[in-house]
Amino acid sequence: MKAIFLDRDGTIIHDGGYLYKPTEIKYFSDTFDVLKKLQNLGYALFMVTNQSGVAKKMFCEADIIKVYNKIQSDLKAQGIKPFVEMAYCPHGPEDDCACRKPKSKMIDDLVAKWKIDKKNSVMVGDKLIDAECGKNAGIHGVVLGQDSKDYPSVKNLTEFYEWLKKHLG
User: Fold this and answer.
1) Residue 30 is a catalytic residue
2) Over 80: is that where the pLDDT of 28 sits?
3) 62 φ, ψ to 5°?
4) Per-residue pLDDT tens digits for 4-15
5) What's the pTM?
6) Is 9 a catalytic residue?
7) Which fold has domain 3-167?
8) Which of 133, 136, 138 is closest to 11 using CA atoms?
């Protein structure tokens, strides 16, 4: 199975700064369209997100699940298959855990569980650590919304879709 691993905040939804309330989710204008197109190309979709607000005691892990469930419900309402699975890191940068991006444990675990074809899979997110996480997991890494000399850079999800068609199909 080929897969797209997507960061959450700043990639599929606006980064609201430690968002933990489902009522505060705001999608980018191209989110639903692009996710559907990615699935039409045969990609399974996964969410991979750092959520250090848990470590900072700003919210709890149950809040992460509530936001994820709302996103899943919104996808279904738009006729889009929901994410196959979400992986999240609840730790802070100072915890030096194995799962926090740019480390690759979240993707590594999903790749093993779902028998994902790494050669044809991509991690995309709005921070360099997202692209670096993909590289560390042995898949393609793409950064959204900022320039990078080390990774392919695209302006938004629509440009990511065009990049993907051109480079991986």
Assistant:
1) no
2) yes
3) -60, -30
4) 999 999 999 999
5) 0.96
6) yes
7) Rossmann fold (3.40.50)
8) 133
Q: Calculate helix-pair angle for 31-40, 157-167, nearest 10 degrees.
A: 20
Question: Which sequence spans correspond to the domains of the chain?
Answer: 3-167
Q: What is the 3-state secondary structure (H, E, C) of the chain?
A: CCEEEECCECCCECCCCCCCCHHHCCECCCHHHHHHHHHHCCCEEEEEEECCCCCCCCCCHHHHHHHHHHHHHHHHHCCCCCCCEEEEECCCHHHCCCCCCCCCHHHHHHHHHHCCCHHHCEEEECCHHHHHHHHHCCCEEEEECCCCCCCCEECCHHHHHHHHHHHCC
Torsional class of 101: left (φ above 0), alpha (ψ -120 to 50), beta (otherwise): beta
Best CA proximity match to 31, nearest among 42, 23, 39: 39
From the candidates 9, 63, 108, 130, give the one annotated as an active-site residue: 9
Q: Hey, CA dihedral for 139, 34, 125, 44, is it positive or negative? A: negative
